């Protein structure tokens, strides 16, 4: 990266209120480069992923505002994306976010039993985080793994054909 590129990242980071790190700006710029300059707002979804990952798994209003400034778009447009998709969290989450699909295929194959088992095992309800901050349990729409229903996503890993026994095994291995 040239010093000109580095300077532009630093300027953009400063423009966004110093909220976005140099590394985050570089990662967002890799996505922005995939779009015509006048369409850089198209990088909002990956930008929010990058920012969320860098912030321990959740998006604050301050971070969403910084993304809006960085991509030169209205903050409301960023909020609309962040609140529409279940892959974003707007409050702190546990170290392990368990996204359980409850859409039609998973429901027909027992996702209700999986949710009940997880709630009982973890001592929390959907949308809550364990007291120790280890787990957050979240209900999500289709994760496109219908053939392996019921399923859940933990981090970036899919777990399919779930049973209560398989859930117990997965939780034991998370440490």
Written account of the structure:
With 175 residues, this protein is of the alpha+beta class. A 4-stranded mixed beta sheet has the order 2-1-3-4, covered by helices on one side. Helix 1 (3-15) crosses helix 2 (22-32), helix 2 (22-32) packs antiparallel against helix 3 and helix 3 packs across helix 4 (61-71). 48% of the residues lie in helices and 10% in strands. The N and C termini lie far apart (39 Å). The protein contains 8 helices and 4 strands; from the N terminus they run αααααβααβββα. The protein has helices spanning 3-15, 22-32, 44-54, 61-71, 75-84, 104-108, 111-122, 164-174, and strands spanning 96-101, 135-140, 152-154, 157-159. A hairpin with a 2-residue loop joins strand 3 (152-154) and strand 4 (157-159).
What structural category do the secondary elements indicate? alpha+beta
Unreliable residue stretches: 1-10
**What proportion strand?**
5-15%
**Whole-number radius of gyration?**
19 Å
Number of helices: 8
Distance between the termini: 39 Å
Overall, the morphology is: elongated
Largest sheet: 4 strands, mixed
Strand elements, count: 4
Q: What is the percent of helical residues? A: 40-55%
Mean pLDDT, to the nearest integer, reads 91
Strand order of the largest sheet: 2-1-3-4
Order of helices and strands: HHHHHEHHEEEH
- The oligomeric state of the chains shown is single chain
